[in-house]
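Page 42, continued from yesterday. The earlier attempt failed because a stray header line got pasted into the input along with the sequence. Redoing it now with the clean sequence only.
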Amino acid sequence: MTKLEVKHSYSQAPEKLFNAFLNADSARNFMFKTETGKMVQAEVDGQLGGTFTFVEQRSGLQAGHYGTFIELEEPSKIAFIFTVDKNSSEGDYIEIYFNKTSAGCDIVLNHDIKAEFAEHTEKIKSGWIGILDKLDQFISNQEVGVSALVTKDSLGQQLNEGDSVKTIKDLKVKGSSMVVKRGTVVKKIHLIAGNDEEVDCKVDGVALSLETQWLVKV
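This time it went through. Structure tokens are written below.
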């Protein structure tokens, strides 16, 4: 077992950072998010025994990240079992400490890496550093109002949480053979915090992100 530790200092209070991890609208902006990928599914059941799912589309493939919360001590600690295999009954133990400081909060993240993955320690460390950096950017942007965007359809009409929309062209889903046909009505869209160019939705039970430039409100 290899023990990995990553630290990051924030100007925000522990409570705000703690809650960001347990809210899907917030967490999708930093958890397992890459610069070139597209988050297509973000679900968080932020309670003891609850689970999380983050699926990002990367170069035509879907990268899934899954976990189960086993410790929640607000606002000081979150621990979960983490895996990239949705069907796995085992995973790595991750614990995140939120330590209050005079300037705000220090987050300390510990990851127990199984022996078979020890050779990837530096890559894993880089990934967690990126996540904590993106959390800092997201929280800071929220405070100055950068994420307060208005999502509009192809006609410039404002879209709201739970609206229904219709596609105005065939939309091929990257990484699959699925095509969302022109004229498809999509119900109960979900707005994405900090992103006014896409909305989350489900089509035939499949979680997708659709570009608003190809949608019209109905």
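Notes: The chain has a mean pLDDT of 92.
Reminder to self: strip header lines before submitting.
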